[in-house]
Design a protein that fits this description.
elongated, 6 helices
Length: about 180
Amino acid sequence: MPTRWEPLSPEEPAGWLERCKAALHRLEDGVLGLLLLTMILLASAQILLRNLFDASFAWGDPLLRMLVLWVGLLGALAASRDGRQISIDLLPRLLDGRAGHFVRVLTHGFTAGICAILAFHAGRFVQFDREAGMVGVAGLPVWWFETILPVAFGLICLRYALGTVGHIQALVRDGDPAR
């Protein structure tokens, strides 16, 4: 993969797609790393301020709670990207070929469906808090911080839906010896 941006010819759509995907992965990892570093620095500052000066940032603890939410969901998103999420996948590991793809179609499809339901209801939750005008850290609307919920679950849903499509394609391809 090239390390710098180069114009693509129309014959290279896969290369373009792979570069976009790699750029999105780097962005995800960068945001996750930045949030984690912010959490570590803020928590350390809070500890030092409390122990040395008997003081703290009033907004520090609520912000840390929101950052834990963001890091947790972005971490889940990254884990779903790399296939490292918590899963019980003994059957797909034991089965190969068509049977393995069939089981993965079911499990990926089920996961995508659950994440779609979670994204939908998380969106409703955020909308309720928006309509209620709830205020969070530093006087900012709390729904700004909660927006990660439907976004992360929606993106995880999309990843698993695409994985389902990929396994369906593999099922079709493996079933046709001419391919």
